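Here is one chain, start to finish.
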Amino acid sequence: MHGQIGQAVERKALEYDSPYRFAELILIKLWKSQWLGIKTSPNLVHSLELYIVIKLYINRPTLMNLKDTVRKIIKDNIYLTLATADNIPWATPLFYCTDSDYNIYFISQLDSIHTKHILKNPLVAFAIFDSTQKEGEGTGIQASGKVHLLESKKTIEDALKYYHTSFIPCTPEEFMGDKPYRLFKLVPEKIYTQDPDAKVDKRVEVSLSEIK
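Its structure:
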């Protein structure tokens, strides 16, 4: 009986790019007796649940692993690629630091293209990855969020608890008045990373609330 169940589950799983997505769907739809063409009973439901746990999750990267992967990518790198847009799109590499909630801090000059874009449209996209990874073995994060220009001395002081650079002195006065640089806070809203179980390159969203 369990062998027949396993074969039926595997045939259905092949229709999906990701076993995680398949597992979610099957757990939601187990009560529908005709979904797998097998009459559903409590014993069958239990057997299917056990099969999914064993076959799809044990010895595979779990969603928790993906959260750890995202944390590691953010912590192990120091540069991100920021994409902004006004009338034209623009991308720029930026040194960054983060706080414990994975908010991102960076500095830029007021006359830079991406700063001009941000002041008109604070919605951005960004990517973080290690460019020294081998082809076919690399991973990174793709994300979107909103950038805030920090203008008051208090917000700048708070940000400087996390942002550190040897490039210029890190005092509030360096990011105010007639100084050329400003300090920004990027608040991520969506984060994606590579789905390790997809048959083709495919991203999967990782919950921000769960990586904090």
